[in-house]
Amino acid sequence: MHVTPTPATRQTCAALNAAGEPCKAGVKHGAPYCFQHDPDRSLEVAAARAKGGKQAHSKPKPASPIDLSTPELQRLAIQETINRVRRGDESLNIGRFVVYAVSLARPILELEGITERIAALEARIGEKV
Q1: Residue 41, CB half-sphere, CA atoms under 13 Å: how many?
Q2: Contact at 8 Å (CB) between 15 and 37?
Q3: DSSP state letters, 20-58
């Protein structure tokens, strides 16, 4: 006869949450409380809450201008932004914005080039007539 073992139950916090219900947060092996409810870590919890509140209301750091006037500068802007996002120096949303801005700038740059070439051709044709 095959007996299916019962799944291991995850240990949860012994404290009650603000609604008076059992806290569902997991605990480290052998600990009775989660990080938020551990009375021995109340100073760390307070510091984490204060830090999180400050970060949530902090202004974004000003960004330096990005020159997108050539395909090479556009490529460098994307490359540098990817590297900043991967290092954690820039948010993913900023990275997405830069890539989007380059995707808008590229066709504009191409149209400017085409317009210049058409004007040069028209000038040459006008000289011959």
Answers
A1: 12
A2: yes
A3: SSBP--B--TT-SS-TTT-GGGHHHHHHHHHHHHHHHTP
Q: Is the pTM of this model over 0.90?
A: no
CA angle in degrees (0–180, nearest 5) for 27-29-32: 50
Encoded amino acid at 23, one letter: C
- The token pair at 119 is 């004007």
pLDDT above 60 (res 73): yes
Residues 10-67: pLDDT tens digits?
789 999 988 999 999 988 888 899 988 999 988 988 888 887 766 555 566 777 888 9
- The tokens for 92 are 């993913």
Torsional class of 5: left (φ above 0), alpha (ψ -120 to 50), beta (otherwise): beta
CA–CA distance, 120 with 115 (Å, rounded to integer): 9
Residues 6+ apart with CB under 8 A from 37: 13, 14, 15, 23, 25
List the beta bridge partners of residue 26: 12
Q: What is the mean pLDDT of the chain?
A: 85
